[in-house]
Specification:
The chain is of the alpha/beta class. 31% of the residues lie in helices and 21% in strands. The chain is built from seven helices and eleven strands. The protein has helices spanning 4-12, 20-23, 42-54, 72-82, 100-108, 128-140, 157-169; strands at residues 15-19, 33-37, 59-62, 109-110, 116-120, 144-148, 175-180, 188-193, 206-210, 216-218, 225-227. Helix 3 crosses helix 4. The longest helix is centred in the first third of the chain and has 13 residues, at 42-54. Bound molecules: S-adenosylmethionine. Residues 63-66, 69-71, 99-100, 104, 148-150, 179-184, 204-207 line the site of S-adenosylmethionine (SAM).
Amino acid sequence: MITPDAQAAIDAATDIVGYIPYVRRIMPRDGLVLHETDNRVEMERAAHALQMASDGHRVVVVSSGDPGVFAMASAVYEAVEAGPRTWRNLDIRVLPGITAMLAAAAAAGAPLGHDFCTINLSDNLKPWALIEKRLRLAAEADFAMAFYNPRSKSRPEGFERTLDILTECCEPERVMIFARAVSTPDQALNITTLAKATPDMADMRTVVLVGSSLTRVIERDGAPIAYTPRSVLE
Ligand SMILES: C[S@@+](CC[C@H](N)C(=O)[O-])C[C@H]1O[C@@H](n2cnc3c(N)ncnc32)[C@H](O)[C@@H]1O
């Protein structure tokens, strides 16, 4: 699902910088240097890219999905703000991509067809209390929701707590969609309900969509379709 603009930038690059699995998706060619880095070094990676750009390289920092959604675009601008003043005048462009929740929503039908919000369930970069507050308020406001980074091996309990909070705030029939490895050969889509959802349905390759109270499922031969109507009637 790479966009034509992103592909054109990759084709014109001298250097590709990014997390190892994303850089490995780039076809090697003469004149292109691939710089793979570990996931935990975002700021160093961004500073490295900016330094190479300052030295005259054409650098592409790659993310999956959209670079502005829980990804490298913010890290690059944080590094710009903290770095030498000359970095502010570099020709930096963020090229939009198709974020996981939109690819997942399209695969399932149209569950984000009305108001929705997005929450990163990882508490690596923010306290769990803030995640819990946002979950409760989003449920109270009857947003559909998309959860990124739902469950990692190092913090499996966060998603269990998320399901407990949703169970407190929403009805058992609430539509839930577990979309794993969307747009890859491993893609798996599970359209279910809150009552049937279990923590092991999510991992770090899954984006989880929760419908609003109006989200519906059309049963048919084959996979069902989930959608949220365009209007909320008074
Ligand atoms: C650090 S975030 C990066 C999001 C990415 N920038 C985007 O716009 O999709 C990583 C999380 O995105 C979601 N994700 C990324 N690619 C996915 C895919 N192909 N299928 C399902 N979820 C995906 C998962 O929730 C994963 O834990």
